C-alpha cells in the first residue's frame, strides 16, 4: 500500500505485507484440525477521495487456508467502534479458500454482492477494519481504486 494513499489519525499506517497466522492443524495419521479463531483490528484511518470519480475503492486479500476455515471482515466507525451499515460480518461474503488478491464483497438488500468501499471514503469519524478468521494465514491486504 502506498503510504501516501492512507491518512491515519493515529500515525503512519502501512497496510501491506502483514503475515498473520491463526489456527493450528495437525496432519499426522489420525489427527485433525484444532479449531482456533483469531481477530485482527486495524488502526483508525481515513481514505482520500480518488480524483477519477468513475473508479471504485476495493479491498483484496491474499490468504492460505486449511480445512474448516473462514475469513470475514467488517468496517467500523473509528470513534464508536460500532459496525458500519452495509459492511458488517453478517453482510461480508465469507471466504473459504486459498487465493491471491481475493476480492472482498458485502451482500446488499437485494441479495447481490458489492465490492465498492467508496462510501467509506472520508467517513466522518474515520474507520477501522475488524477481521475474524480461523485456520487462515493472512499474507497481505490491499485497498485499491479500480
TrEMBL record:
<protein>
    <submittedName>
        <fullName>Uncharacterized protein</fullName>
    </submittedName>
</protein>
